[in-house]
Amino acid sequence: MKSDIEIAQEAKLLPIREIATKLDLEEEDLEYYGKYKAKLSDEVWENVKDKQDGRLVLVTAINPTPAGEGKTTTTVGLGEAFSKLGKNAVIALREPSLGPCFGIKGGAAGGGYAQVVPMEDLNLHFTGDFHAITSANNLLAAMLDNHLHQGNALRIDPNQIVWKRCEDMNDRALRNIVVGLGRKIDGVTREDHFIISVASEIMAILCLAENMQDLKERLSKIIVAYDYDGNPVTAKQLNAVGSMAALLKDAIKPNLIQTIENTPAIIHGGPFANIAHGCNSVRATKTALKLADYVITEAGFGADLGAEKFFDIKCRMAGLKPEAVVLVATVRALKYNGGVAKENLNTEDLDALKRGIVNLEKHIENIAKYKIPCIVTLNRFVSDSEAELLYVKKFCEDRGCEFAISEVWEKGGEGGISLAEKVLETLETKESHFAPIYDEKAGIQEKIETVAKEIYGAGAVTYTKEALQQIRRIESLGFGETPVCLAKNQYSLSDDPTRLGRPSGFTMNIREVYVSAGAGFVVAITGTMLTMPGLPLHPAAERIDVDESGKITGLS
After folding, report:
1. Pick the residue with more confidence: 556 or 110?
2. Distance between CA atoms of 269 and 203, rounded to whole angstroms?
3. Taking 80 as the threshold, does the pLDDT of residue 191 lie above it?
4. Is 301 a catalytic residue?
């Protein structure tokens, strides 16, 4: 069996200018990054903004498991299937982070014959967007520490600095550090921290900004610290906005590549959904909606994280109205939720499937709360028995969901025809009455508890003393009427990653709350969630190599 990278390297790519013609784009609309990838120029939006929007479909999934679900693979394969049916479709995805690429997950370009390519470029440096975000983040950190060293005219309290440095790599040793050691000229000694770049507020800002003016306005609002009187100190006060924007001038432009079957794919931005808002950029999605009749996008991790934030943060802020949701699951993952060990998942086990399918059931219910039609798709494995497939099909249909089998990993677009037809049928026969699940004018605690109880299934929410103090400060500063972004582990509906299936009535703990003033939301950290991941015992980096000809291997 060929690996994902072998399949991708054998693909017959078209020059990116030919892909662009499928979206009625001209050569002058592209800024080339080699033969097979390009950025969309600033002029593209001005040229298309008055066109009618296409129809927006979100792909999400059950909670991830070691058994695999295939959300990105399904997204890509569904786009390919739309193209095979003669539909004008485009895929809108996030860019992968180097952290998971060299950590546990490996690449994030899809899989099998449902991949975006060139996959090596996408998974590694791509067009440099993440490097620009990292640089802008760390420039602000450097200017903050320089301000302290040069006399601290803003009276910043070193014990109330909230801006952290970042790096797009899993590096646990950088979570908590001390800077400024050495001589007086080496800076002010203080405790500092690193987060992964995809958790940076600048990543969130880039993905929510409509244009350069909006980007600069958002950057100016970033709170980096508080002074000795408790007043916020911003990036604008440090005179950092212009230089940060200069670093981001190209990164704000969406990227165009293609799938293995030459379907256009607009890839841009990449905040994690477990520690950030988990969606590709507003600019990319809105541009895609003007360029195609159908836009297929995804949100990170399970529907409890990515889809919730897509609906309550991105759609609310950008005025987007999704018309259908594709919910991805696998029989293997459902049996894993039912207590079957990974090594035994290839054996038929209807009892375990019945125990584990409650996880899918909760996600179906959650999507219904947003009043959007749902299509469940099973990413099929050869080990799935007919009895198992029929059980899941009936389970979904009994709950008012359309159902389709997906075989896009093995067959590409051809394996997604059944799913594509179900999506098209749903778009034509079922109306979406999309609405966010809470009023953003509600208090911060009320919004947190709405998500925790309605979406996760919590029975109660507790707060540390520090979190309650932080909420009071945020509300007193006028940031209470914004969406909330809950940072939670991705493996469980609860804040305990070991609780599989459908835990309910549990108590969720909020340990930290802070405002991302530029992004326009409040972040609440649950349980033991970390904003800088670590590497596993045997990271994916150990398997990756490049030969003398420049061919990369081991990237999956």
Report:
1. 110
2. 7
3. yes
4. yes
Of residues 108 and 426, more confidently modeled: 426
What are the beta bridge partners of residue 324?
57
Active site residue 21: no
SS3 123: helix
CB neighbours of residue 143 within 10 Å? 17
Rounded CA gap, 483 and 520, in Å?
7
- Listed in sequence order, the residues at least 6 apart from 231 whose beta carbon sits closer than 8 Å to its beta carbon are none
The pLDDT value given to residue 68: 76
Residue 506 known to be catalytic: no
Beta sheet of 484-487, edge-to-edge order: 460-463, 507-516, 521-526, 484-487
Q: What is the DSSP string of 451-504?
A: IIIIII--SEEEE-HHHHHHHHHHHHTT--SS-EEEE--SSSSSS-TT--S---
pLDDT in tens, 62-72: 999 987 789 99
For range 375-391, the mean pLDDT: 95
Whole-number Å distance between alpha carbons of 365 and 457: 11
Q: Residue 394 catalytic?
A: no
Q: Is 94 a residue of the active site? A: yes
Indicate which residue of 65, 72, 73, 134 is catalytic: 73
Q: What is the pLDDT of residue 248?
A: 98
Predicted confidence band of residue 555 (pLDDT cuts 50, 70, 90): confident
Task: Please confirm, yes or no, whether 403 is among the known catalytic residues.
Answer: no
Q: Is 209 exposed, middle or buried (0-12, 13-18, 19+ CB in 10 A)?
A: buried
CA distance 556 to 554: 6
- pLDDT, tens digit, 9 for 90 and up, residues 152-161: 999 999 999 9
The CA distance from 446 to 351, in Å, is 38
| Residue whose entry in the numeric block shows the structure tokens 């990449």 | 270
Distance CA 200, CA 339 (A): 36
Active site residue: 105, 354, 473, 511, which one?
A: 105
CA angle, 368 then 277 then 464, to 5°: 95
Percent of the residues in the chain that have a pLDDT greater than 90, as a whole number: 95
Phi then psi for residue 405, to 5 deg, are -85, 140
Contacts of 486 (CB under 8 A, 6+ apart): 305, 308, 448, 451, 452, 523, 524, 526
Token pair for 56? 């927006």
**Is 381 one of the annotated active-site residues of the chain?**
yes
Could you tell me how many helices (H) and strands (E) the chain has, helices first? 21, 25
Asked if pLDDT for residue 1 goes beyond 80, the answer is no
Look up 189 and say whether it is catalytic.
Answer: no
For the segment 329-337, the average pLDDT, to the nearest whole number, is 96
- The rounded mean pLDDT for the chain is 96
Amino acid type, 381? F
In this prediction the pTM is 0.96
Which is catalytic among the residues 240, 273, 276, 524? 273
Catalytic, out of 94, 283, 290, 332: 94
Start-to-end CA distance of the chain, whole Å, equals 13
Contact 447, 513 (CB under 8 A): no
